[in-house]
Amino acid sequence: MDFGKKALREKLDTGALEDVRQKNRFKMFILSAFTAFCIGIAVVLVCMGAGAFTEIIRNSPSIANLDTIKPTATKSIIYASDGSIMQELIQSGSNRETVTYDEIPKDLVYAFVAIEDNRFFKHDGVDVKGIIRAVFRALTSGSMREGASTITQQLIKNNVFDGGAESNFGDRIERKIQEQYLALQVERKLDKKTIIQYYLNTINLSSNCLGVQTASKRYFGKSVDQLDLAECTVLAAITQNPSKYNPINHPENNQIRRLKVLKAMLTEGYITQEEYDEASSEDVYKRIQSVSADYNSDRTFSYFTDTVFTEVLEALQDELAITETQAYNMLYSGGLRIYSTMDPVIQDIVDSEVNDPENYIVGESGSAVNYIEYAMTYRLTIQLPGGDNYYYDESNVKSYYQDVLEQPAFKLTFSSEEELEKAATSFRDNLLKQTGGKIVSETLSSTLQPQTSVVVMDQETGHVLAVTGGRGDKKEIGSLTLNRATQSTRQPGSTFKVISTYAPALDVCGATLGTTYYDTLLSYNDKTIGNWWGNTHLGYATLDFAIEASMNVVAVKCLEETVSEKTAFDYAEDFGISTLVPQDMSPVLTLGGLTYGVTNLELTTAYAAIANDGTYTSPVFWTVVTDSNGNVILENKQTTRKVIKSETAKLLTVSMQRSIYPLFGIWNEYGVGSTSVQCQVDGMDVAGKSGTTNDANDVWFVGYSPNVTTGVWSGYDSNKSFGNSPGYHKTIWQHIMQRIADTQEEAHFDYSALVTAKICSKSGLLAREGICDASGNENCHVYTEYYTPETVPTEYCNRHDVYNICTVSGLPAGDYCPASEVVKKVYLTLDPSDDDGVETDDTPYTLPRDFLSNYCSFHQPKVPETEPEPETTESEETTGPVEDDGETETSETESRAEDEYYFDD
What we know:
Elements: H1 2-11, H2 14-58, E1 76-79, E2 85-89, H3 106-116, H4 128-141, H5 151-159, H6 169-189, H7 192-202, H8 212-220, H9 229-238, H10 251-268, H11 273-281, H12 284-294, H13 303-320, H14 324-333, E3 337-340, H15 344-354, E4 361-362, E5 369-370, E6 373-383, E7 389-393, H16 394-404, E8 413-414, H17 417-435, E9 438-449, E10 451-457, E11 464-468, H18 474-477, H19 495-507, E12 516-519, E13 523-524, E14 527-528, E15 539-542, H20 543-548, H21 552-563, H22 565-574, H23 600-611, E16 615-617, E17 622-626, E18 632-635, E19 640-642, H24 646-658, E20 687-692, E21 698-704, E22 709-715, H25 728-741, E23 755-760, E24 782-787, E25 800-806, E26 822-828, E27 859-861, H26 892-897, E28 901-903
Parallel strand pairs: 1-3
Antiparallel strand pairs: 1-2, 3-17, 4-5, 6-7, 6-8, 6-9, 10-11, 10-22, 12-15, 13-14, 16-19, 17-18, 20-21, 21-22, 23-24, 25-26, 27-28
């Protein structure tokens, strides 16, 4: 070492060595200063954080009164539009019934502790180990799914912080810190029994159940103190996600979660292996389904309440950024005041008409058809001798009848409930005989068929005044069930012609109500597009009459020749139809041939836009939600937009009014004419459009008065065909609108912005008096049509002309046909593009091809008689031609002969 230092000193002089030392001192100074700066910053941040933390703690809610952490059950109320109470979401019954700790089974306490907070009996309100575990798993797995909130914290969040309804991340962090601080305070003041009691009386357990007592009665039909281990684990399995783990609607999900609860209880030593095995194999869902089938509540939601509840539940989550459980708790125990748009008078009218059996009887006595059937819903579980369980439903009943009993026409709809029960019994008995199994569980229920849905709206405000989502007693069906008016999508049929095709045709594509199209043979994708009355065709028809008579061929031609598929698609979407997909852009879009169909609510809203002078207003079932002190929590914001011009809406109304009040009655022997005369209403103008799909699987009528718009749909849930349109849906529509009209002042549509012109129905141009109305064609009319001032026609009919016809030959009269044998006849001339050789109702009145190239040849000019030549003498004979001196005269007699005619025998 000394040698090395000596050598170094020999290499470096004294000055160089000093420079190195100075540089090293400077580096150490910089490093020390930076270290001191970092330490200072850290100290400042810690002090600031400590100050902020202290401030958050200082601002924590007070729990000096321990009642603040008890579960509360202030009822929420839904009001109708007239201020009357429509529905109460109250504490007792369907909301919450509190129980004491002694009434709660130990197995239920241990089930919740094991799955929600397994260190509940060990921590002091905040589970530090749980937090560390959750952070570690979040860092290693990237998932934040594992929470660290204790049961005490959850209790405080629900009852002190109103479910934790913060709108931003900073507020949530603040609430979390305060929540943990208060949890420590609560644990010092309350024992574990009281805390778990409050918690089990607070939690949301789905199906309108808050707290374990209400849930126990709802799912098992008994008080909570009577639950066994398996039943306790069902309830404990729900709370993580009440919708997903609902044991009625999703028993398979609940079973998976329930087994996790049992496993956790076994791990924690709360149950033995024997108890685990017995509880895990118990078919607890059999009892749940049985209780559910018999469950009935005087507080069953109406279809309107179903929709309001569901929408407000979603709005609370979206607007307040809270969970479904938190939103649910606000609805049932937050003292909310929800203001709906329901008109009680109109709702009663709708309910009574939809459920009136007389409305479903069609035809005269003796040959009447009664549209009352019952659809089967069947669930059967059997256990084979080997111990395996097998599950069956109504589809197995259908297969049994079609395949085993060789009844291929068998359907799952029955004329009586007795027949339905007989079919299920036959299937079950045969199955048990063939397999040797025994019944584990069996449920059988029926649904009235065909079904019907109705929507009634105020087109100006967008307020839904009444809705029904099905036929039958809603109390028997239950709350929050299928709403066919708002949830079911069905094919709209001809109702779609108006919003997809005729609206844009009149609005931007240059068509008028008088625009004509030639109804003839038409096909698409090798399929013939026919009219509803069969394969006969009318020939030329105006757009107006095409709406009035619901003509399919004209609708497709209008879309393809005038509108375009893209424009039709865009207009339908602008009218509020949300279910369209790109594949729907095709010629059959106008006929309602959609991939997914439409809901009654959206279709009725589209027609309401027409009724509202072309302005679309989004539909609402509720307007505002306040707390119990009147402070606004939610506002239902609506969207409005101009879809079509006001004049276009009026023109469509003219035509759809004629669909109900026809101008000309039945046009021909096929019964072609206005499709909805049975929808006429006394004392109120109405307009509307019917719709029937292929094979009549769906039938519609959507229409409006100056005040309300109503849509009626009917069909089988199984999509069974009616065969032919039953017509009762129009009866229901008429009854509803008539009864509404009887409560209102008489009102009429305003067409003052339109002008009129008398036109020919075959050309759509101004009629030629004495010509267009003299064709002899009963399908040709001269009538008054409505136009906008800019589109009224100025030209006269160019398809009708008068021709002189010889009555003898039947051909166009020639120059030699006597006047007494000539008649004037009006013929229709086809456009060359329409002359396809297909026979239509216009054919007998159409000028035949090449008709004008063959004039009458029967009459010919008369040849004058020749006088005898005088005898000549030899001297008078000439040997050459006689030259004409140019002065030859024609006698008066010869002149008259040229004007005479004769008959050629």
